[in-house]
Amino acid sequence: MHHNAQHSSHSHIAVEPWGIRESSFDSAQAALHETLFCLGNGQIGVRGAQEEGELWAGTMQNDVFINGFYESEPIVYPEAAYGFAHTNQFIVRVPNVTGMTFSIDGIPFDANLGRISDYSRQLDFQTGVLTRSFVWTSPSGQKIRILSERLVSFTHMSIVAVRYALTPLNFTGDISITSSITNLPRALMAGDDPRVGASLGGSLDYIAFESSEDFAAFTHGTHHSDLKVVSSVTHDQTPTRLAHDEQQTNVVFAKIAEANQAISVVKFGAYITSQTVDSDDMTRVAKHSLDTAKTIGFDGLVAEQEAYLNEFWLNANVEIGGDDSLQQGMRFGQFHLLQSAGRDGKTNIAAKGVTGAGYDGHYFWDTEIYVLPFFLHTRPDIARRLLEYRASTLDAARARAREMSHTKGALYPWRTITGPECSSYFPAGTAQYHINADIAYAVRQYNDVTDDRSFLLEHGAEMVFETTRIWPALGRFDEQGQFGIYTVTGPDEYTALVNNNLFTNAMARHHLQYAVNLVAWLSKDHPEKLHELRTKIDLTSEEIAIWQDAAAHMKMPFDAKRGIHAQDDAFFEKPLWDFANTPRDKYPLLLNFHPLVIYRHQVCKQPDVVLALLLLGHEFSVEQKKRNYDYYEAITTHDSSLSSCIFSIMAAEVGYTDKAYDYFMQTARLDVDNLHHNTQHGVHAAALAGSWMSVVYGFAGLRTFGKQVKFSPFLPKQWTHYQFNVRIKNCLLQVRIDKSEATYRLLEGATLDIEHKGMPVQITAAQDTVVRI
Ligand code: BGC
Description:
CATH class of the domain at 19-314: Mainly Beta
Bound molecules: beta-D-glucopyranose
Helix content: 25-40%
Number of helices: 18
């Protein structure tokens, strides 16, 4: 079933290997391009609105977000019940420090008056700089070139910088450049699309304004969540004047400009929040950060940015030979992932990264199951930080478990910012208990791929034990001695509150078994740590025996007649969805049918059984995978952007190479081509990472489990070759796939044992290993 690719409103992005470029301004695309041209560093996200903001028609969210900076409000249920999530947290926009505009002889710039020509804007993935250039002809005929460059520093996490240069082309006159900090009032988004988020933007209260000759800073605060943010600026020169009210400050530079001579202002902005710095100290820290940035200078920041990205691409680059547009899609995704992932151990990666308020800025299982592999194999330090975030919210997960009537253990929330459950729709929220198993899976995967045991000892083992404790409480051993798990929802959100969801049971089995293995490992290698943990969380041998038992006897629903796994106990009793009579405009189904209507049918939004076949691939035969794939593919709508990538990977594994390619086409440019029609609300972080997986897990067939590293590559016939680097067990491995051979090269590390299409191969640093595919 393919529906999403139809009638997409394409962005006007030129195909380039290392960036995105627009060569005209189109107000109808402005909101979408704000997302695509967004800059970020994992902490700050500056949407790609124009420097002059609303002076350009179509500007939708001229917003800046700080990952994890949120407002909260009570969730009001007309019909409430015990244990419902009671407080929502949602990301709020913070004041925008990037605004710049100008006037000529007192007449302000307005993009809607006069004429814009020679416009181009480019986001360069190698420099991390957004550059825009155009000529404005004012209504009275003055021509002026505007060149602006912008960055959000990867090396100074609180810093953004803008260089704004103006060149009069046919006049000499008075030009004043205005640099602003603006706090916009809250804009509410109405509508019933759950993907948009409850409210766009924020409603921060003014607290203070402070300025000196070369410094201006607002302090604003949230109403309920008790957070403060300082938004501050300085410039490379002393301003002529400065004015402010509670929402905006304008810093003005009055200049006399000669024809054909550029005048410029460089602006440095810094954001400091009370989440990281003591409230009383925030303004001082902001000033200090700005002083540092000013000393480095704009060119210095660009040089640092380039060096940082150079290092990133050395590790992460994926090269696709023979398709420039897919090449662009891949790098766009990798770049945005790098921009989106929190890396301070206290923040994570939101469903929309730092590019928008969609899904309220919440963190989901998307992190562990979709995004983590990308970082594991390219920036394992960031992967660890993402897991540390979960460790930092373990207490909240314990509290939630108590609320959910578990006397022991921890239950992670379906969606959250700082830890509490924020899902107000429990059938597709809290009921997705698989989140616990997903996190344990990620801990295990981190451990297997990096060989870094310190995370397990510091946090991981405790997280795995606490979370696995929930499984025995969700089910029982039946008369045949099989362990069943009741009333849960799997990843497929078109089916809810079922017994023995195959994905959940399979992942719970892995989780329970992993916990048992960890106990054994600790008792052998780190007995004092095990002792400490046993005491801390009151872990008993009886409990561990139950984990072992439940894992050994986990029920895995199987339909003998069809010869495939059932998504849950009752799945095959339901009628099939009437696909033949569902017109295209009724997709996605979630916007056109009540959940109950959908739940009552065999229809999937996204992979469920098929995802289990990938994550726990060693537990299923190829034949089983193929049969399951065939059945579930036919009933999956891919209404979620988390779907196509997994189908691409599994199609590759079962030998459907054309399908693998088709699904890859649905994911590799999902945001650049706005295939889901909602990229204006932010990028789809899971799908971006899923595209990376489609190449590395799909076409190249990488699987890591325990000590095993397996590849099973093929070359899509549309390509001449592809190549990528992956970090595995302290090695950096370059993999290149050509028509008939694969070349493995160790860029770091001495030796690495892999399996190539089932054949053991030892890769050594001394020479390339070339094998037939
Ligand atoms: C998907 C979930 C996902 C969420 C956030 C939903 O549409 O069904 O699996 O976690 O979006 O990306």
